[in-house]
Amino acid sequence: MIRYRKLGYVELMVTDLERSAAFYRDIVGLEPAGEGPDGGRRFRCSEDPYAVVLHKARQPGFRRGGWMLEDERQFASLHAALKSAGVAFESLGDAECKSRGLGRATRTVEPNLGATLEFYLLPAATPPKPFVPTLAKIQRLGHVVWATPQYEEANAFFRDVLNFAQSDSLGEGITFYRAFPNPYHHGIGIGRAARNHFHHLNFMVTEIDDVGRGLARLKAKDVPVVYGPGRHPASTSVFLYFLDPDGMTLEYSFGMEEFPEIGARAPRRLEPTPANFDSWGSYRDPRMSTTGEIAAYKVTGAA
What we know:
This protein has helices at residues 17-28, 74-85, 94-99, 151-161, 208-220, 274-277, and strands spanning 4-14, 31-35, 41-44, 52-56, 61-69, 89-91, 104-109, 116-121, 138-148, 165-170, 174-178, 188-192, 197-205, 225-231, 238-243, 249-254, 268-270, 293-294. It is α/β, with parallel strands linked by helices. The model has no long low-confidence stretch (mean pLDDT 97). It starts with a strand and ends in a 9-residue tail after the last strand.
């Protein structure tokens, strides 16, 4: 059984690197953390070396994401689970790990979404560095959501192969999972759609005032707010969704149900009514979660 600590990083593709770097720094409130080995711009929002990396590309979207494992023993469980499912994976070489600030990592491609997933540990000597908030008191990278026509198959992969724990679903349209035993209601979401695409990236903030101040800041800078503020009944989170310069959807959220490792409640199926998406009744802009490809990658390792 694979055990995780958290969603550690998400790497995004953007069409104008300078424009997007300024936006994620000056509007979202992330802290610049230097450049990666291929020129990607790194940003922090927690004690980790980085949480978001921006890469220049022709189309915006999701490049890859990384989940921190609980300890070294989890690699054996991960590899066994992937082999049993017939899913290819590869271990990152020492040079790549060093250049990206990782201690050890395994990469695979989710076979339904086509999303590149990495599972990693930081180097043993990596000291935590406090994140000093500027515009928003961001606590952590919260979750990433994708959408796919292979909805049932993607759900089965995360649940049955990767040991993500289901928290709730809204009808047959979206399901939420936590990276067990991480307590937060969801670290990923899988939605149903006509094509594979990136849905949104979430940042968890410290207090509800961060949502209010964020709304004022976004409006002052003419940033499109596409949903909220509101409250999701499934997770109890107060939310605010907005668009980055490429039209990709980002979210601030405050407050989220936490699950105990033992004795957690059973997952619920909530009816997909407007009130179950937002108990406050806010308007959802049709531009929300419509922009964002999923980068293609082929694993060279054997299944």
